[in-house]
Amino acid sequence: MTDLRLYNTLTRSKQVFVPAEPARVTMYVCGPTVYGRAHIGNARPAVVFDVLRRVLRHRYGAGAVVYARNITDIDDKIITAADAEGVPIDTITQRFEDHYLADMGALGVEPPDHAPHATAYVAQMVAMIDELVARGVAYAAEGHVLFDVAAFPDYGKLSGRRLDEMIAGARVEVAPYKKSPADFVLWKPSWPEQPGWDSPWGRGRPGWHIECSAMIREVLGETIDIHGGGLDLIFPHHENEAAQSACAHGGAPLARVWMHNGFLSMGADKMSKSLGNVALIDELLAAGWSGEVLRLALLSAHYRQPLEWSDALLTQTKATLDRWQGFLRRSDVAAGEVPERVIAALSDDLNTPDAVAAIARLSRLDDVAGMRAAMGLLGLLEPEGEGDAAIDAAVAARVAARARKDFAESDRIRDGLAAQGVVLEDSPSGTTWRRV
RNA sequence: GGUCCGAUGGCGGAGUGGUGACGUAACGGACUGCAAAUCCGUGCACCCGGGUUCGAUUCCCGGUCGGACCUCCA
Where does the chain cross the membrane (predicted)? Predict the structure, then answer.
């Protein structure tokens, strides 16, 4: 099998991936902050890293991959949303976590092995912050605990920035209790009416970055193989995670490979919650696009490239997928080995467009077993369609009409079914139907 | 202002120092009662200007345009 090569943000290059322990490959992806519905852009990392997980399992064995994706269930935006409705925060977080899991499930994203919730790991966060203070790289000030970026020489290495440049940018929050404007919050105080936990620094709540560091160490270990997320997380989120974890670990890095997916755009701008130009997943599904179409559309571009999301993209993707699924439907040959050509494409930094091209070729080669296996690997097999007695009866009536050359009746039945979104396909071996 | 990325056919989108993926759309044909599906065939591109080279879409430099990050954001 060809080497698996992955682009590492840390080194800005593709590198052959070698896990620390092939029997236990660890990956962590930053999951959602659950305070609103997920849009299709939020699904890109979930889908991309779901594919990576499948590729890793194929290579190292199903039991050899440990995948964690967190749920951020304490955050100021959540508090704001809860206040707006006058409900406790867990009403909000539970609701949107359920939505998130349903949306991802529709896109064929398998649940991760671990889905740690931030609120369940506050003790570990407090412990890690305590260690950082003890090591002299963090300091308490006015109820806050801050990470002292000057104490970590490699700060800025992941995002390729220099500290002085960041400070010169002057867009970081300048609070009087910070030693340096670039210092970031590990712990912040809560007002009595805000959610909070007791800590050595008073009642408060964790900063955003510390949760991933603490949960990764608890769930996966100190240095993991792969850490992923959207490219906007490189700075400050991942830079800060990397800094605090390395310091807490006595120097051992947080992750060996950092991977970041590019963004979806809508028209001229990136799709963004704050810009409001988003396509929500549940709305796309309600509009009739199947989860497989949405998934294939997300995989139609390389994960690091931008992808313009549009109805035209979905229309084209659906046509492609219909053709593939039709090809499989006409044969009951079971899945075989995933063709090497497909593995090679995916092994080249998850080149899904090339894998898609390879799969398209399989239908030309009449390789049903390979096609089924490849589509299964990418998570694109459609669920078993349920039967429908009424449609079957209509189809039977039309077959009878055609047999007696009553084409007016035959066409009337076909048009009626078409109006219900059911398309008929006649072949020498009989008539089949499918929904469009 | 700083850092980084991109520019390929009607559209989406890989890739490559020389024979120009793949999908979708278009056109022609086969098949079909007519369709649908399928199959066969055809046409269609590498931002601009230099440089390196026998040869550049691919490498280098410059430019133009577009985008991202530097602040919540996948």
Answer: none
